[in-house]
Amino acid sequence: MPTHEQMVAAVHAYVNAFANSDPAAVAALFAPDASVEDPIGSPAHIGHDAILAFYTASMQTGAKLTLEGPIRTAGNHAAFAFSVALAFKDTARIDVIDTFRFNEDGKVVEMRAYFGPNNMQGM
Amino acid sequence: MPTHEQMVAAVHAYVNAFANSDPAAVAALFAPDASVEDPIGSPAHIGHDAILAFYTASMQTGAKLTLEGPIRTAGNHAAFAFSVALAFKDTARIDVIDTFRFNEDGKVVEMRAYFGPNNMQGM
Q: ipTM for the complex?
């Protein structure tokens, strides 16, 4: 079971990777067979190559993440609320909650992002 | 598919039910065969009777919920961040994120709560 501190560190590494426009740093947080459902309900990106490609494209929007409130952890799960700013549209704000499920090694095996059209402002 | 407005209304009804110490009002938000995993990773409360019993016990702590930031919705899912105050210990604060999955009728079929010991303060 990953510790609270390991899961919190992974979330901060995720946010920092966006700050540094470093998709490889995000991909390194995931297990090789992980799935990313962003937003939840859309087709999942499965496996390292698909996940790296997805975050490479995501970061081309210049997305920067700001955590909103404490990171919640329970067992091998974490959830965190954040807002997203976009480089190409400085009035834009997207409010998102992500959930991470971790494996025994502290790698993320499932990521799901909760946001929709009603969570986008100033686009 | 429930609308954003239906899902937001369900979340507000959930928060208001705690404000009113009304477990039946919470139970009415759930489908008859729904599951409640609170916190995520613990054994689920499944079905109306188990869910009503769970919320009846929960509300005996005097728990009151304050939403923190906007309710996120995507497809038939919602996620929301909140803090919990407890009547018997006025210094206590628990930070939680809940996720709801809805059915076609706008009833909650799966609830999962993300929080752990590190999300409790002043207990």
A: 0.96
